[in-house]
Amino acid sequence: MEEGGGLAGMKRFYVMLGVLTLALxxxxxxxxxxxxxxxxxxxxxxxxxxxxxxxxxxxxxDKAPIEVTEYSDFECPFxxxxxxxxxPTVREQLIxxxxxxxxYRDFPIPSHQYGRYAAHAAQCVGEQGKFWExxxxxxxxxxxxxxxxxxxxxxxxxxxxxxxxVARYDACMASGRFASRIEFSRQEGLQRNVNGTxxxxxxxxxxxxxxxxxxxxxxxxxVDSLAARxx
Amino acid sequence: MRHRxxxxxxxxxxxxxxxxxxxxxxxxxxxxxxxxxxxxxxxTSRWAVQLGIPVAFFxxxxxxxxxxxxxxxxxxxxxxxRGPTLLLxxxxxxxxxxxxxxxxxxxxxINAICRWCVGSAVVVTAIWLVxxxxxxxxxxxxxx
Lengths: 231, 144
Prior knowledge:
The structure holds two protein chains of two kinds.
Chain A: H1 6-33, H2 40-43, E1 57-59, E2 66-72, H3 77-95, E3 100-106, H4 115-126, H5 131-140, H6 144-147, H7 152-162, H8 166-175, H9 179-191, E4 199-202, E5 205-206, H10 216-230
Helix pairs in contact in A: 3-5, 3-10, 4-5, 4-7, 4-8, 5-7
Chain B: H1 2-25, H2 39-43, E1 49-50, E2 53-54, H3 55-73, H4 76-79, H5 83-110, H6 115-135
Antiparallel strand pairs in B: 1-2
Helix pairs in contact in B: 1-3, 1-6, 3-5, 5-6
């Protein structure tokens, strides 16, 4: 008789199959139940808002004559489109050349499930000096914003890819310590009549492009005209 | 017979791994338990859905077929037949090729590794090796 064949062998096999099935079901239930959710502190607006003096991360020279302030939401598809399509040209032609300093301000849209959480993730990586790297991770890999799935693990991967210390990032996210800063930024935007994202201010004046998302050329034209006016 | 039993047990393990990933793709269970691996990076990449179906469900279906074929092949009426052995080898070869393609995407295109996907790749490779070994072994069995 071949090993494993025969009634006794088959009985043993069916017992093993049953035990394995039970073990796998138990493991699956465990995996599905013990699931950490996005830390509450980092996903919701705080009850009290404190001004910690922070006015957004900037990109470019402090001496640049023109400052663009962007009110943005990491979950917003238009913001992602601008960041991935237009922003590289803006960086190359206007920021790297010292003409423009770019300031990023959070304006999480309340209806976006994870916009505020993403902003908090960017702040937690930002305190480690990698805000713009995290900004790019969140916008360039924007699939998370369409799935509606809990992005906790993905954002941790992004933080790692951005060069952050993941343990520090985890502690920061769990504490939710930047929630107040993010809400302060949103309220600042509301006071400046920001009602959608992305909204841009060039040296304090809102940039209007009708219903069209601004392109790098819009900024270039504006910067050129402001420069010509200064001459 | 022992080959088919081993294949059935391995396919059961593979089916549960694929089911876990499939449930996650449907938004059930939230974040994947993945340590510091790149499971979410892989699962949210554009390769995670093929023909409108989350890739994990190809695994759920594939492992289920292998499991059923192996269990049927263990029944007395099929025990001595060569057909199930050939079919299992063919199914396992398809599975291992598909899995190799996914692993290639993880390593060289997505640049992130999902531990559960690696687990599935190991399981399907083991099934394939057992199935190949079975091809070289004649189907002999005597009654108890």
